Amino acid sequence: MSYIGDFAVGDTLYTKFTTVTTTGAPTVLAGTPVVSVYEDDSVTQITAGITLTVDFDSVVGLNHLTIVASGANGFESGKQYQAVITTGTVGGTSVVGYVVAEFSIEAVSALRPTTAARTLDVSAGGEAGLDWANVGSPGTSV
After folding, report:
1. Is pLDDT of 1 > 90?
2. Cα–Cα distance measured from residue 94 to residue 53, given in angstroms and rounded to the nearest whole number
C-alpha cells in the first residue's frame, strides 16, 4: 500500500498495485474483484467513479485503479481516503480488506494553486516568484 498524494476535488487519480502468491509470484486478482474507498473513519464504502482493471496491459498480477474523485461520487475536500479490496481472491484465498492505496483530497498540502497543476516558482535562494498583477491589496508600490 502506498500514499499516492493530495488531490483536488474533481481530479482523476491513477495508481497500480500488484497481487502475488505466497511465494511472491504475480498472480491474477480473481473472484469478481472490487475496490471500494473509505473516507476517514466512515464505514460507508464509496464505489462510484472507481474502475479496477485486472491484469492491466495483459500483465498478470498488475492491477490498475482509476478513481474519479468528484463531489458527485462522494469525495470531499479536507478528507483522507483508503482504497481497499472489498471483493476478490488471489490463488483461491480471500484478499478482502487489503488496503491498496491511500490519498487525500485538499487535506495535506498547505499551498494549493488557483489553477490546477500549476506550481510555485521558487528560486535557488528560496524566494517565491510573484505575479504582481495578482497581488490583492498591495501595501507598497512595485
Report:
1. no
2. 18
Q: How far apart are CA 38 and CA 99, in angstroms?
A: 10
Joined grid coordinates for residue 108 = 495535506
pLDDT tens string 25-44: 999 999 999 999 999 999 99
Give per-residue burial for 62-99: e unless 16+ CB within 10 Å, then b. Answer: bbbbebebeeebbbeeebbbbbbbbebbbeeeebeebe
